[in-house]
Amino acid sequence: MPRTLLNLAAAFTISIFGLAASSAAFGADLTVEIRNAGDKGTVMVALFKPSDRWLGRASMGTAAPARNGAVTVTFKDLEEGEYAISLFVDENGNGRMDTNPIGIPIEPYAFSNDATGNFGPPLFEKAKFNVAKENKSIVINVK
Amino acid sequence: MNRRSFFTAVGATAASAATASMAQTASSAATRAVLGGPAGAKPPLFQGSARMTPLRGYHGQDVACERAAIEGKVPQELRGVFYRNGPGLFERGAGTNKQRYSHWFDGDGLVHAWRFTDQGVSHQARFVQTKKFIAEQSANAFLAPAFGSALPAHMPVRNSDDVNTANTNVYKLGDRLLAMWEGGSATDLDPQSLHTRGIVTWSPELKHMPFSAHPKIDPDGTFWNFGTMMGKMVLYHLSPTGELLKHAVFDAPTGGMVHDFAITHKSLVFLLPPIGIDYAAMRKGAAFGQALTWNGNDSTKVLIVDRNDFSKRRILEMPAFMVFHFGNAWEADNVIRVDFVQSKNLDIMSDWMPRMMRGETVVPDRSNPAFVKIDLNRGKCDVAMRDENCEFPRVDPRVVGLRNRNVYYPVDNGDRPEGFGFTGVMRIDTESGKVDRYNFSEQVALEEHVVVPRPSSGREGDGWLVGVGFDVAAQQSFATVFDAMNLAAGPQAIIRLPYWTPVCFHGHFHTA
User: Fold this and answer.
1) For B203-261, where are the E strands, in sequence order?
2) Hey, is A48 helix, strand or coil?
3) Would you list the domain boundaries of chain A?
């Protein structure tokens, strides 16, 4: 099993709470509909650009209460370009993605394109999508 | 039917050949009922011999037989449920998309219940409805990576329970029937219906942690288990009703794969073979099982853990050997005695099993009874081996962790024509060294046999040896009942199903 899984939880924590401020203005809005995130805690969403360290430090982040069905968050004024999203559900409200003692996440998580890794996070390439001048909507399924 | 005629019945006879066609019919009907279409329209992908029929697996259907045919007499005191578990599905897809797993360990868990009642013996087998099984059954394709087959993930793999097949062992703990795998959680089934309830989390922080398929259970029901993954080892101590009493997580002394262990009344005892993991091979797409390496120049490590305090651990070393299964261990005068089945290296798993799964008739490497004495004062280990070719050692549940005299094994008579399945059962008296043994004909492929104590008796061996097997000529599965202290007398009863079932790995008999 690749060791990358061990770093996943740490990466999430950094990506949500070490956010760089967004400097874009008058760009497109990105609406993210997050399905099946459960009804416990908060959905923590991190938006990465190619220039960011994937799963390290995100350009932007936001959060919304988890709700059965769908939760929607919006990133405003995005520059044109490629982006990818990682998210997790902070079910117990401790501000980080919990893992078991081996480092396997025990709170739900997902990526844009519903990208999956094999016992670890997917590459940025698998999760990336394009934002042009127009507003855009995407869907991410958590389970 | 007298005992001599059992031998005939289970061997190749004209009578067996007559029932073979009946078995085919019953099996096909069951398949049709579930798939909703004609079964067998396409030739099976697996072209193994008649002996290997059980390795074809099922197509996801559950089966049941309300009253199995009993030859001989089931003892009146032998009442309860014999639960077994094993990989039951190996192929999916149709036409050019047909896929077959390349490793025996990959199949989805099929849990069996043989119920011994006053009305006779019934059999039921249901697939464990794991997350993976449900998704793959719906897609009619393999979606999850497997232990020994290099398959890309077509479904999210967020943790090991997303690929959990729940296919290795089964034990009733409290009101939960635990279907156990090695790399992830146990799966809880209803003991009566075998309906799947979901994965078991012993405490929130232990969610998705590995929980091995070889727990060891004290005669009072106290339950001990372990798990290994990603260089860590976890130990579990559960009450007889399934409450977590304590656990510990620490760095594993060796990296790769640990399958089984033993307990004494004071210690947990592990023999950790030198198995490594080739992470580079995994990154290139190899399955976990294919990336395991045998580091024969390293030692097999002996890990001894204090049952009362998991932080008290000691490591000794022995020359490299492989072990899958333990019989028992016991401890007196600062000496631990452990019996197990020893093989040279990983070849049985890495080479023979994939070839067997392709239908090749090839004889596996030998695996032999071994007995090690661990002198805790001197820090020395001495091992003695015997010649018999066997596996799946079991002891009387009344002596687990205590001084035992007998160990039971299915054994190879040396006349297996095609490598797969044992042909006899054997009891080794570890004090006298004598062997009590019964040989079926070569037309039988036997699995693990377990000791069932006679109710109200405390004497080791007072009871029965119960197991299952496959009658090659009849193409039927059967259960056996022996007097546990007189195997040579032959089976007291053979209980036949009108169909064959996939081969199981392990199970437990829970007396009524």
Assistant:
1) 216-217, 223-229, 232-238, 244-251
2) strand
3) 4-141
CATH class for the region spanning A4-141: mainly beta
What dihedral angle (degrees, nearest 10) is formed by the CA atoms of B494, B496, B502, B507?
Answer: -50
Rounded to whole angstroms, the Cα distance separating B203 from B236 reads 11
**B108: number of Cβ within 10 Å:** 28
B279 with A106: Cβ contact below 8 A: no
Report the complex ipTM. 0.73
Q: Which domains does chain B have, with CATH numbers?
A: 3-511 (2.130.10.10)
Specify whether the CB–CB gap between B411 and B389 falls below 8 A: yes
Provide the mean pLDDT of chain B. Answer: 90
| Residue of B153, B234, B282 lying closest to A101 (CB–CB) | B234
Place of tokens 């290795």: B168
- Is residue B30 helix, strand or coil? helix
Of A12, A14, A13, A5, residue with least CA distance to A102: A5
**pLDDT at residue B414, as a whole number:** 75
> CA neighbours within 13 Å on the CB side: how many for B157?
20
Q: Find the CB nearest A105 among B153, B158, B279.
A: B158
Give the burial class of B39: count Cβ atoms within 10 A of its Cβ; 0-12 exposed, 13-18 middle, 19 or more buried. middle
A97 inside 8 A of chain B by CB: no
User: Are the beta carbons of B229 and A1 separated by less than 8 Å?
Assistant: yes
DSSP-derived secondary structure letter, A122: P
Which residues of chain A lie closer than 8 angstroms to B282, CB-CB? 1-2
- Model pLDDT, residue A143: 73
- Count other Cβ atoms within 10 Å, centred on residue B95: 6
Both tokens assigned to B34:
């579930």
Question: What single-letter DSSP state applies at residue B352?
Answer: I
Q: Are A86 and A127 in contact (CB under 8 A)?
A: yes
Strands (E) located in B231-347: 232-238, 244-251, 262-263, 267-272, 275-277, 292-294, 299-306, 309-319, 322-332, 335-343
3-state class (DSSP) for residue B65 = strand
Chain B closest-CA separation from residue A115 CA (Å): 8
Q: Compute φ and ψ for B422, nearest 5 degrees.
A: -85, 160
Q: Distance between CA B183 and CA B159 in Å, rounded? A: 10
pLDDT in tens, B419-446: 788 999 999 999 999 999 999 988 999 9
What angle (nearest 5°) sits at the alpha carbon of residue B29, between those of residues B27 and B34? 100
Q: Are B322 and B383 in contact (CB under 8 A)?
A: no
Token pair recorded at residue B347: 């070849």
Q: Which residues contact B453 (CB under 8 A, 6 or more apart)?
A: B396, B397, B398, B462, B463, B511
pLDDT for residue B48: 85
Here the tokens at position B218 are 């004290």
Q: In this complex, do B210 and A102 lie within 8 Å of one another by their Cβ atoms?
A: yes
> Exposed, middle or buried by CB within 10 Å (0-12, 13-18, 19+), for B46?
middle
Size of interface A-B (CB pairs under 8 A): 61
Range with lowest mean pLDDT among A107-111, B153-157, B386-390: B153-157
Dmax (CA) for chain A in angstroms is: 45
pLDDT in tens, B22-55: 333 333 333 322 322 334 444 456 888 899 999 9
| Region of poorest pLDDT, from B24-38, B63-77, B133-147 | B24-38
Phi-psi region of B221 (alpha: psi -120 to 50; beta: other; left: phi over 0): left
Touching check for A103 and chain B: CB below 8 Å?
yes
